[in-house]
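Bit of a strange request maybe. I'm writing a small parser for structure token strings and I need a real example to test against, not something I typed by hand. Could someone generate the tokens for this chain?
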Amino acid sequence: MKRAILLYNEKAGRGKIAGKIENIVRMFSDVDCVLLPRLISFDKNPFDGEEASDLVVIAGGDGTVNYVVNAMKRKGLDIPLAIIPTGTANDFAGSIGMSADVMKAAHQIIEGEVDEIDCGLVEQINQEGGSKKYFINIFSFGIFTTTSQHTPQHLKKRVGRFAYFMEGLKELRTMHGIPLTITTDNETFYYPTLMGLVLNGETAGRLPLMRKASLKDGVFDCLFLRKRHLLGLSAIDMLLYVFGVRTNAVRYIKSSSLMLMTPSSEATDIDGQSGVKFPLQVTCLSGALRVVCPKSS
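Reply from user aminoacidic:
Good idea to test on real output. This should exercise your parser:
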């Protein structure tokens, strides 16, 4: 009989998992799998004492999945992961085809297959003892990209994804360009950047930015928005890109690695969590995660 743990975040997505854990445990028991519920604690490693698990089921949003992936990597473990999306955006779970319905997602896991999925690694460079973090969906910096870090939990619970928009408006007061030197697999160039997005998946905040992105191609899909004199012009450039119209102010790149250098101190974001400081290296680790995906995907 297989042994699995269910790491759930009771605060994610307006308490979406509440009242459904017992039914999920019963579903796994019906297929000869013992599923042990564990309320996730973000101040300790959830794999302590659980290193021999056959499967880890994560009920939460992208931030919760990110925390579990980083905790697993720190332990040097390679346990298959499965996701019940109960967060606010659930970009990564959406990219692999998981249902937004909790019980349907549990059924998809039971009927699903383990696939090898890419994972991102961000490392601070040129610093002794520089930090590093893994990401599943997106690494970002610049305007609006750290919004999710600052959005209060009570606001997300009340209005959902609209809370990010409300919090993002506050960042307009601190808008500034970043003098950035970018090195990809093929070139090095300077780009005064208002916003940078390095995506492993297709969406950010469920906004479809990379419709042709793949979680299994070994490369990132990257967007860099150039700062223009008027904020409105930059906003129009980004809006046009979302609707499929390319402009000279949006640089699109596919690359398996990036080195990002800037003399300024800038905050970064990794799957909605606080990221790594510049200068830094971003690397796509091909097939580095084993993830249960629906058969249909």
